[in-house]
Design a protein that fits this description.
2 domains; 336 residues; 12 helices; Rossmann fold; five-stranded parallel beta sheet; alpha/beta; 14% strand; seven-stranded parallel beta sheet
Length: 336
């Protein structure tokens, strides 16, 4: 068990339910007034934990300002705003909240799919412009019986696949080279695994569920988009960096695919002059797939609980860098 005092840094506020847990535990809470590096850097000294949202990147340089940091707890599943190797080198445990946002993100991805297939934005604008006659153009399409291609079949991808297969009778194609043969057996009989080219060529809707890393940066580019059917849609609720945004813009401008639904972008917030804003065949949402009223509370509470578990000598859920636990500073810390 870590010895007192225990000070916890919040670069951004967390929901009141999570804050109440911290206050009940009696630890000192350091709340940064903003996420500017020059503000956060001096606050790193003397803290044992950082509860990290998406508004700050925990870089190697920023961690160098900490002198007693034990745990960085992310209020989400992704850790692309944490330099995990640097944290491991410094003996800092990194945790994330796995699974708490799965159904929430799936709902958002499904909402984008349905909005695209049913042409909801176009229909809405037409009615507002007194173009009621658009109904006779029969632009919406049935989802039932179509083919859904999933890039990544982890928690979110597999849950989206299950719902779409069971509720809408979609044929499911998937590409995920990281799944073990044992894991693939769970999908036998209703998911067809294939290479990327076949997935992009045969799918009516492609949904991306790939974590961002150097190996997945711009994984989907002009070649892959060029494989898609002219009537197909692309949905991305994972990370903007896995998609070559300029290639997608060109593809959408030239109507080479029917449209896209994007919740994530190469740069966030979007640049003021980003051409995606000018296109009428793309739906844009501001990285809100997991930011429902209910989900943000779950994420914050579980991130706080992971930190409290560490302080109590209990191994937390969602450890991202388990190799750090072999370092001397962690010996004898956890009772379970």
């Amino acid at each position: 068990m870590l010895k007192p005092p225990k000070r916890i840094l919040l670069p951004q506020p967390v929901e009141k339910e999570a804050m109440e847990l911290l206050k009940e535990a009696g630890y000192e809470i350091i709340l940064s007034p903003d996420t500017k590096l020059e503000t956060v850097q001096p606050l790193m000294k003397g803290v044992q934990a950082v509860i990290l949202r998406t508004g700050l990147k925990m870089t190697r340089e920023l961690m160098s300002h900490a002198d007693d940091l034990w745990v960085i707890s992310r209020t989400g599943a992704g850790v692309d705003n944490v330099d995990v190797p640097a944290a491991t080198e410094r003996g800092i445990l990194v945790t994330s909240v796995l699974g708490a946002n799965t159904r929430t993100v799936v709902e958002h991805a499904l909402a984008l799919i349905l909005a695209l297939m049913k042409q909801i934005p176009l229909m809405d604008h037409a009615v507002r412009d007194d173009n009621f006659g658009i109904r006779f153009k029969n632009l919406p399409r049935d989802l039932s019986g179509k083919t859904l291609g999933l890039m990544g079949l982890g928690r979110i991808g597999s849950e989206l696949a299950r719902i779409c297969h069971n509720a809408f009778d979609l044929r499911i194609l998937a590409h995920d080279p990281y799944l073990t043969p044992e894991t693939r057996l769970a999908f036998k009989g209703w998911v067809e695994f294939c290479d990327m080219e076949r997935l992009f060529k045969e799918s009516d809707i492609i949904s991306l569920h790939v974590p961002f890393s150097p190996s997945t940066q711009k994984l989907i580019g002009a070649r892959e988009l060029g494989w898609m059917k002219p009537e197909a849609f692309l949905v991305n609720t994972s990370r903007g960096g896995i998609l070559d945004e300029q290639a997608l813009i060109q593809c959408l401008k030239e109507k080479k695919i029917a449209g896209a639904g994007l919740d994530v972008f190469a740069q966030e917030p979007l640049e003021k002059d980003n051409l995606l804003k000018e296109l009428d065949n793309v739906i844009l949402t501001p990285h809100t797939a997991a930011l429902t009223q209910e989900c943000v509370i779950r994420l914050a509470v579980e991130a706080v609980q992971a930190t409290l578990d560490v302080f109590k000598g209990k191994k937390p859920n969602g450890i991202v860098n388990p190799k750090v636990l072999i370092q001397p500073r962690w010996q004898g810390i956890f009772s379970s």
